[in-house]
Specification:
This is Nucleotidyltransferase. By secondary structure, this protein is an alpha+beta fold. The protein has helices spanning 11-18, 27-30, 74-82, 86-91, 102-109, 118-141, 148-166, 177-184, 190-209, 219-234, and strands spanning 19-25, 40-45, 61-63, 69-73, 97-100. It has a 5-stranded mixed β-sheet with strand order 3-4-2-1-5.
Length: 237
């Protein structure tokens, strides 16, 4: 059998020609946008299967081509989602979907398969990492040097807590918009913001113990989806 070598595609071509799902993320998806907010775009592309047969593999992610745009190859996206990565999981639940073809819609239909109690570790773990940075700032300057990350740490903990409580991931902060924006503007004293972080961390831990989410994500279901997409791309049907 003669195998024809497939010419590699540029990263830009992978995004522009092979994106299956695209959405807006960041403050606009969270209901926290202000007049100065950027528009953060995220997407998923499917690299043609023959590109994986040679030594030069397609990239697992691509930055651009537009400003504030970032995309993942489908397999990498699924790997991160199965680990409970907050950024990836939230992409699948953005209320601002800009594009979804048949594969993208099937990916969206799978989003519950990625959810599990692992999100407690990932959401709380990310917030804990941010808090170490805040603590260093407070020791050096008496207050966090930047308040926007404090706001987003609070939002993340709220989102993770509510996901653990209900089994559903909702990004829009609703009536918590103004209290969170007050934090961003530096109008909330650090001891008060710190106490809020403490309270949310405790509430997320309590929610994890009684969460309706399964212990593990549905790895087999996601893998079946990925294999079918790879086979279809290879022309195997």
């Amino acid at each position: 059998m003669v195998v024809t070598r497939v010419k590699p595609l540029t990263p830009v071509a992978l995004v522009t020609d092979h994106t299956v799902y695209a959405c807006v993320m960041g403050s606009r998806a969270f209901g926290l946008a202000t007049e100065s907010s950027d528009t953060d775009r995220r997407g998923v592309y499917v690299a043609p299967t023959p590109l994986f047969w040679g030594f030069d593999k397609p990239p697992p992610h691509v930055e651009g081509p537009a400003e504030e745009q970032f995309s993942w190859e489908l397999e990498r996206f699924c790997e991160l989602a199965l680990r409970g990565n907050p950024n990836i999981l939230e992409c699948l639940h953005s209320p601002l979907v800009e594009h979804a073809d048949d594969t993208g819609r099937e990916l969206l239909a799978l989003r519950e398969a990625f959810l599990s109690r692992r999100v407690h570790e990932t959401y709380a773990g990310y917030a804990a990492g941010q808090r170490r940075k805040f603590a260093a700032d407070v020791r050096a300057h008496g207050t966090p040097r930047r308040w926007k990350p404090v706001m987003h740490a609070l939002r993340l903990l709220m989102c993770g807590r509510d996901l653990l409580r209900t089994g559903s991931l909702v990004l829009d902060v609703g009536d918590m918009r103004e209290p969170l924006l007050a934090v961003r503007r530096g109008e909330v004293p650090w001891p008060e913001a710190e106490a809020w972080l403490d309270r949310l961390t405790e509430e997320a831990g309590e929610a994890a113990r009684t969460s309706p989410l399964p212990e593990e994500p549905d790895h087999a279901r996601v893998e079946d989806f990925l294999i079918r997409i790879r086979r279809a791309s290879a022309g195997a049907g």
